[in-house]
Write the structure tokens for this entry.
Amino acid sequence: MIGSRKRRPMARVMAGLALLVCLGATGCQVEVGGQTLPSPYYLTDDVQYYAPGPPFKLAREAAAMKAQQQELAQPARPQQPVQPQLPVPPPVQP
């Protein structure tokens, strides 16, 4: 019984050290005063950069609407009547 009582404080110390090692080995984000602080590994993380897009997000839609307005603004031209083409008969052999 005496040997088991000596092991308890040592087990608690070892468990505490293991907990500290686990907490120190994991990098996590922390929020302090409303500010998110990065993990300890932020210097080795890969950079995720997204190029800025155009300032006007609907450029294609605006171009399509402009083309449609121009098409509607042009006066309608009268269509030429299509003359049917008759098939050419084969040459007559003598």
Remarks:
- The chain is about 40% helix and 5% strand.
